[in-house]
Amino acid sequence: MATVVMVLAGLLGLCTCALKARDAIRHPERPALRALCIMLGVFGLAFIVTAPPITPWLSGVIGIPNSGRLVGNTLTLISAAALQAMMLYLAERPEDARPRVRVRLIALALAVTGMAVTLLGSDTVERNDFLTAYADYPPIIGYQFCYLAFLSLAITDLLTLSIRYSRYAQGALRYGLRLVAAGAVASVAYFAYKLALLIGGWTGHRPGGDESMISAALAGTAGILVAVGATMPLWGRHAAVPWIRLRQYVSYRRLTPLWSVLNAAVPEVSLVSGQAMAGRYGRGEIGIRLYRRVIEIRDAQLILRAHSDPAEVQRVEAEAAGRGLAGDRLRAEVDAVELITALRVAGESADRRGATAVPEREETDPADGDASLSSESRYLEKVAVAFRRQQAERPSAPEPSLS
Amino acid sequence: MQADGLPDPFTLDEFIARLAQRRQRRIELHPNDHLPGHACGMWLKLADVDIIVYARTAQLHQEHIVLHEVGHMLCQHRGETGIGDELTRILMPDLDPAMVRSLLNRTSYSDAEEQEAELLATLILERVADRRPGVDPVLNARLARQMDRLKSTFNG
Q1: Residues of A in contact with B125 (CB under 8 A)
Q2: Start-end ranges of CATH 1.20.1070 in chain A?
Q3: Does domain A2-236 match CATH 1.20.1070?
Q4: Could you tell me the pTM of the whole model?
């Protein structure tokens, strides 16, 4: 199981590196992107190399006991250094970050040299419970010190990056950074477990369980979360498409009754050119169908507003405000009563274009929404609900018959 | 229509700036209160500048009205001269109607050019429907620069 998690994390790292590589090559002026790409690729290799059956195999190929572990841990630290470089390039301008990145690379070289010297100078055999077995053996204590000290710097950076910036990010980037933060927490657990093994070797209170399995599970979980989170901004938008389409369909259905009434009264706002605009859209084109609904409702509203009854609009607005409504909900009530009274007045008048001025009334607060289709359609859903309810409360209102 | 040419995230200002650069002509946007019975959008082509007048309404609707007029530009519709002088005087009192080389209104979609412009606006804005910028919190200059670098790194 641990092997599967490690290999899966490794492959994910390599795939995400490949995904990012094209942009990294295309934008040499973005060193942070290059560092992220190196981090993900080396990270992927490190996971594959440190998977339980692969490490001893690699040691066998090299011909030195535990050299597979040295290669895996070195790759992990290179990945950690790339992460620190990325952090520095994010925080500073490239020219300011470069000297600091060099210091980190020197620290990496010292850590890897220290690990190599201590491990190659030690007398160890290949085994899965490496740290448990050699926790009180000075060369391996030195080896672990070099490894964990450098790793702790990277984990601190990863936590800082993900928690600090996720507060200010939006959408897929925010969720991606939160996943990276979860990965950083798993890394802390991995680091704490390694430290506990080391301290346990001195004190005699060793944590239970299979060292190899627990290490692999913690490191693999961290790797998967970081790889998935770091690339979420790339694929998150596509993954959300089914949900967006479903929500658009629901919105389209909810707006249809209001649109039908307005379209009957002001048919000139309908775009009737071509098959697509005639309403015979395929199911996959729900985005365009909803978009036309929204625009045609707004067009009709603009034309009809001149015919609304200002006194009635003010009365409904005051009543709604008295019920505690505010913001979009209050505005929706006002828009609905404007439409209802305009349809009634216009229906009684043969010349609905005779008006020359919009009725004066105090504007409600500006809408809180943005220019996105989802915000606008959800707002109009509120208008449609208010429109239906207000119509039901006015049974004597004549049906609009303007066309 | 090339989706690659559309800003991502999409903002009208960025789109208009790119279009003006490509056409090498200034484009000015002028919001105005809607006059009942008149067009809710208008494109005035002057010697060295294109002026788009649009009604104040919901934000998406405003952008649609502007892009409808942009549709006329992109489709190279010719428009007319001498019409709408009175409306021009009302909406743009500082502008001499004689300066206007052609004018196109957004009213109904009764002719092919209006339908074409409307269709183009629809296709552009529907395509970018999910590519709107979020409401960014107010950031100090240093953090804003860091966030820009973060976005360009992670968003690719």
Answers
A1: 291, 373
A2: 2-236
A3: yes
A4: 0.67
